[in-house]
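Now produce a polypeptide, keeping tokens residue-aligned:
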Amino acid sequence: MTQEQEPPLFTKTVDFLAWLTPATQHFPRLHRQTITRRLLDAALDFQEAILEANSRRSAERLEWLLAADAQLDKVRLYVRLAHRLAWLSQGQYDHASHMVREMGRLLGAWQKTTRTTSERQPPAT
């Protein structure tokens, strides 16, 4: 699948990870195995959850999308904490927040579409 064929959420997520990874290299060394690791893990877990969701259908897809939503909430928390601790400048925080907000918007739309599709399907017998 080329970048042109990828759903926009996949592209936005890769862009966010490509921005986030070098940004965290400037976080204090003392916290790289705690807060930094949790932030990166949550972002990577989000990416993995949307990839899993893409390979599933109906209710199972929705479960993965909800898991992705939970991971994105963690990303928001850790980005906010990094800004509060002055590890991200205001400009970096604004940029990260915009990217995460866009990812959340796309994820929400996918969840809505999946719910609508699931409701239209007849129950399995």
Q: What stands out?
A: The longest helix spans residues 90-120. The radius of gyration is 16 Å.
